[in-house]
């Protein structure tokens, strides 16, 4: 029996002015890309706080994409430079936490670049699929209830005074 | 006040600093003793867990619990005191957000045991003996608590009514909290008892424009006594940290390291620091930005999550042994 292929869940934050329109364009132009991406529209890539990315990963996403206007073309003048610096800071921290670079990606895509965005999504989905599931919450799931119950039992036994 | 309340104080994975901080309220401790019968305080007085076990549920009016949860025994005590207490307070940074013990989450139990029982130069352990959860002796089986892979905060184990931040909480804030509890003037359950501003608001330094080309370590410069430390390139966590300490460190020229925990509304202390620091880097060139960050912040976890790794969104580094069971891990 063929093993079921791992389908990664990827959360993408797309800026309203460029990248979300690029995704729209990909749709109207019927450009296919892999359906593993859940897109969330934000007003600007500069709105994407590292908390969003960390939260997505901690809740079970296998990867996160942040997409915005090309540097120099931000609707809000320079906020995508902020996104760029934050991303660099975030990647530095994620490396220290043991999360592979491919799982968090910063992608520039203008409103005309539906093809490029679709290509980037396909590439990322393939890379994350190759890495396998992140399954982050399993990092702290420890089953210790039995051990804790034992402490109570021990105490009860120790308290028994022979008649 | 007609009837005295019952007070319990407990410590789990902590350094004892919180206990000292309680005594830091000086002679006001006598007022605490007037209002409460102290039923349990292992640091200070004799007491038995068994006598707590025998108490009625919810019969302790207030429990101040300091320390993170590192072993099954600590989790047992957290559950027991939760069951017996009306109000459980996560007292201090360890119980609130993991603090320094939580930094153990950069390693696994296996790595910690390897270092502690084998690798350190002062260790003499030719037979490679490690503590075992169960040991058979002639008289029966001896048990040790299970040492967790991942340090937890108190509220990751049991429900907590209030949080008192700080490493340790400042005596004045402790007293404020005790007064609030005695007078019944408490915020909604689940709240942090403390300020809702940042250390910057308490800091006397002058703030102008933050544009920096490189981060500096504390030993690299003698900071100007008047200007904001972050503007001088030092990684100061005051911008993300809850006020309450009186900005002690930045006032004397040492950058804030974030011991008072995240300010109100901050879900992930490290993420807030990353955002703030990314905003002040004066560069638009990806390579230069990478270099500034790489060279200026060699230890991002220790810098951004010194006190809050266990409470952060990701809680720990990736476990290479993910999912392995207790028995196998401790063997």
Protein described:
The complex is a heterodimer of chains A (163) and B (331). In chain A, strand 1, helix 1 and strand 2 form a beta-alpha-beta unit. Chain A has a four-stranded parallel β-sheet with strand order 2-1-3-4, sandwiched between helices. Chain A starts with 9 loop residues before the first strand and ends with a helix. Chain A has five helices and four strands. The longest helix of chain A has 19 residues. Chain A has one domain: Rossmann fold (3-Layer(aba) Sandwich), CATH 3.40.50. With 163 residues, chain A is of the alpha/beta class. By secondary structure, chain B is an alpha/beta fold. Chain B has 14 helices and ten strands. Chains A and B meet through helix 2, helix 3 and helix 5 of A and helix 3, helix 4, strand 8, helix 11 and helix 12 of B.
Quick description:
The complex is a heterodimer of chains A (163) and B (331). Chain A has 5 helices and 4 strands. Chain A is an alpha/beta fold.
Layout of helices and strands:
The complex is a heterodimer of chains A (163) and B (331).
Chain A: E1 10-15, H1 19-28, E2 37-42, H2 50-58, E3 63-68, H3 79-97, E4 104-108, H4 114-131, H5 145-159
Parallel strand pairs in A: 1-2, 1-3, 3-4
Chain B: E1 5-11, H1 17-23, H2 28-35, E2 36-40, H3 49-53, E3 60-66, E4 69-71, H4 72-84, E5 85-91, H5 92-97, H6 99-102, H7 109-119, E6 134-137, E7 140-143, E8 147-152, E9 162-164, H8 171-183, E10 191-192, H9 199-202, H10 248-251, H11 269-280, H12 286-296, H13 300-304, H14 326-330
Parallel strand pairs in B: 1-2, 1-3, 3-5, 5-9, 9-10
Antiparallel strand pairs in B: 4-8, 6-7
